[in-house]
Design goal:
This protein has 105 residues and is mainly beta. The chain has a single domain, classed as Immunoglobulin-like. The chain is built from two helices and eight strands. It has helices spanning 12-20, 82-85, and strands at 2-8, 28-34, 40-50, 53-57, 66-68, 73-78, 90-95, 100-104. Strands 3, 4, 5, 7 and 8 form a five-stranded antiparallel beta sheet that branches. A hairpin with a 2-residue loop joins β3 and β4 (53-57). The longest helix is centred in the N-terminal third of the chain and has 9 residues, at 12-20. It is globular and about 40 Å long. The chain starts with a strand and ends with a strand.
Length: 105
């Protein structure tokens, strides 16, 4: 089971942009925690939902997903427009076994 938390305008944006990875404007941080008892591979794919409108986030860093051990968390990053962000009410994460895990924003 994955728990998902999204943080808009995360302070990590500066680290990714300048100190570590040379990836500017990665202002949306998505934290994914493995609340289960076995390792889970969380995919680098998320869906934001605004009722009738959905957007799939596929240009996420790091690409390829991450294996998360039980009780541990991993973070993903992407660019999101501040005004567009206000439209969405939930986010969904996916694992490599076909599972989907949603959380309110």
């Amino acid at each position: 089971m994955l728990e998902v938390k999204a943080i808009m305008n995360s302070s990590v944006e500066d680290v990714i942009g300048f100190k570590c990875c040379n990836l500017p404007d990665q202002n949306l941080e998505i934290q994914v925690k493995n609340a289960g008892e076995k390792p889970v591979k969380a995919l680098s794919r998320f869906v934001l939902d605004a009722g009738e409108k959905q957007v799939e986030l596929t240009t996420v860093y790091p690409p390829g997903g991450q294996v998360i051990q039980p009780g541990e968390a991993a973070a993903f990053y992407c660019n999101m427009d501040d005004e567009e962000w206000k439209l969405y009410s939930s986010i969904t994460a996916f694992d490599d076994q076909g599972g989907s895990f949603s959380a309110a924003l």
